[in-house]
Amino acid sequence: MSLRAKLTLGTATAASLLLLAGTATAAQPGAPGIGDPYYPNAGNGGYDVSHYDIRLNYQPADDTLSGTTTILAKTTQDLSRFNLDFLLKVSSVRVNNKVAAFSQSGGELVVDPRGTLREGSNVTVVVTYADVPSTHAVDGYTSWKRTPDGALAIDQPDIAPWWFPSNNHPTDKARFDISVAVPTGVEVLSGGLFGGTTQQINGWTRWRYRSLEPQATYLAFIAIGQFEIRQSTAPNGQPVLNAYSERLGADHGASVASIERTPEVTEFLEGHFGPYPFEAQGGVVAPGIGFALENQTRPTYDAGFFRRGSNTYVVTHEMAHQWFGDSVSVHGWKDIWLNEGFASYAEWLWSEHVGEGTVQENADFVYASYPADDGFWQVLPGDPGAANQFHGAVYDRGALTVHALRAEIGDEAFFRLLQEWPAAKRNGDATTDEFIAFAEALSGKQLDELFRTWLFTPVKPAVAPGSGGFAARAAAAAEPKSYQKIRETHELLAGHRH
């Protein structure tokens, strides 16, 4: 969940670029949050981040994380001070090479640059810190996951405050350089291109990763511990890096049999969604995550997804998010169905591709699985509320909404939409209203009633979606071969923090 106790913000601008010390009466602290309707204090106003350079040291023996994050940003207003979302203990802050005053409270790092930062100015912020991430909690919850051999900085919607200071909301994406030094013999995984390792004289090794495309802060991650790392090349020429925890035990074989097929799954999805939007592919499997998450370029999976054998459905789900969720992110967390509905629908497309049940059979079965009096239908995918953000209805009813749209506008327009929407919104964010308007413009049809029925009405729609769909057929729908695996996948995916 997002950090609650937010103080006001501002942003920093170069002393050499119109830094006016105390004379600009118009300068104000930035807004205390970006304005997300679910988490109104998430993120910060007044500046936009373009790049994070995160350089860390981590000691698994005592869970100590230390280092420096350098933030490149541009002000969007005249600022007198600004906030960064961060929990760990800070020792110093510099703004444009000058020592800045700062304070910390309630998960907020409040920075006073000792002067006005003018709108449109470039800002360099350097934050140095050291702490034990697992000792920090927000609302009683700790996103940082300490493991027997290291740690996992993986969660949604919040993980960044446990390991780097940031403007923590999907609407402020940035590029990342991440490097982590650990005792030699310990591995570090992150997203983007693997930049190799460097042996240090103190018996430690530094691991480097670079993301070439903008990403949301919650999609940046690190996994530290004992891992088997496999590197290869995808059919499209991209580097593939997969990693498997040495603690997988009996789940190791099924994990490898699933994750090593990531390039095959990606190639299939490119046929529906257009060119893969990022620079690398891969996946990480480890116990202790509790869910799977679509970390940009390299999703992470709990070992439980492979407890009953290989599972390419969860791989399909997380790789579909690279288009729907990562490249095109939510504008606000209430728009989460745009991520989960399309990723779940991708599983149905994969099911049809591998001959384990058509899309229509999956839609019929899901529709029939929930009686009209089931609380499932009371959760509105288009606005589920923060407590239900990862409810099964967001996944399954979200996918039913996608299929209802396909039935309404026809396959030609629908499959054009699957490619043109992520292309139009690439590296950006979107709202449900924007998606509806886009679908109407592309199809030439008025779709308000369709989306009102499937996303915003707390009753079971009268008929199942799809060509010739009707309640009687759906009531007797047989379970597709794929659906047991899909259902298990969704139950684990719903393990995100609520």
UniProtKB/TrEMBL annotation:
Instruction: Give the required cofactors.
Output: Zn(2+)
Q: Provide an example Pfam family for this protein.
A: Peptidase_M1_N
CDD domains per record: M1_APN_like (cd09603)
* Reactions accelerated catalytically: Release of an N-terminal amino acid, Xaa-|-Yaa- from a peptide, amide or arylamide. Xaa is preferably Ala, but may be most amino acids including Pro (slow action). When a terminal hydrophobic residue is followed by a prolyl residue, the two may be released as an intact Xaa-Pro dipeptide
Question: Carries keyword Signal?
Answer: yes
Question: What EC number(s) does the entry state?
Answer: 3.4.11.2
Provide any one GO MF term from the record: zinc ion binding
Parts of the chain that traverse the membrane: none
Query: What domain of life does the UniProt record list for this protein's source?
Result: Bacteria
* InterPro entries referenced in this protein's UniProt entry, alphabetically: Aminopeptidase_N-like_N, Aminopeptidase_N-like_N_sf, Peptidase_M1, Peptidase_M1_aminopeptidases, Peptidase_M1_dom, Peptidase_M4/M1_CTD_sf
* PANTHER family reported for this sequence: AMINOPEPTIDASE N, PROTEASE M1 ZINC METALLOPROTEASE
**What is the protein name for this chain?**
Aminopeptidase N
